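A protein record in our archive is deliberately plain, so that people and models can read it alike. The record that follows is passed on verbatim for readers who wish to inspect the format.
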Amino acid sequence: MKNTIEKALQKQKQNKAAELENAKNAEEVDVAQELPAEAKSVLTANADIVAEEITTNAETTVTTDRKTPEQYGFTIDFERLDKNGHISLNGERKQINEEYREIKRKLLANSFGALSKTLHNPNIIMVTSSRPSEGKTFTATNLAMSIASEQDKTVLLVDADVLKPNVLRTLGLENRQGLMEYLKGDVEDIADVLYPTNIDKLKIIPAGRSHHLSTELLASQKMHDTVDEFANRYPDRIVIFDTPPLIGINESAILANFAGQAVVVVEEGRAKMSDIKLSVERLNPEMAIGFVVNKSVHNDTDGSGYYGYYYAERTN
């Protein structure tokens, strides 16, 4: 009898506890349902903030993972260039370094000195030649790297030889989209094909893929506006265009209208005087025109020969 009573009391306690728990839960639900509108707004706003933070974090992660041109610029192999006869960027004092220092001093003086006031886009320099294979790309890349070593100048090297691009190959770099893709509209922003390099003050725009309407694209208003931005946006910038040879190529004549200076590369012992005269005729007569004599053989005091590079400006 006693055991039966104890069991009944125990069950009664359990039932009572269950009823209290249910009442507590019901009260909490009612409280939530009876919250004033202001409190509900606060709860909703907090929930939205949490959701927004989650979305923002997710978007930030995606943006961070997507590479930008600043993150995948070109890495130039200095030792490779040194072995191939380019100027040294490792601190070694070489004859070719001194020669390009002398050449760039005249170009910089034309770009920012008294003569600059008489030139259109004096800081835009086209490097060209009369015929192919006279060393224009070699000269353009060396000039760009030498000017980039200046303390107060930045350099943009543009491969505008859209028929036979050679800047990336000369520097040992992989092909990427470039000027042609931008002018065709495949790339929306010129910044997307303007690549930084491991030379702090040097950026490169490749030529991109050749196109059958390259003449028309280079002559477009889009190209004109782009060059104006190159020339005027940064007061410390030199822009070097590696252009096609002058004779028989329409693209070079178009590009000559954009530049304030022209450097015509002449290979000693190969270039004909008639070709040089014809090349000058295809240039804008209001430009500052200079000539780099490439592979010119000199004699040192000890009688040994070496290749040199000399720069001379045209006299009117």
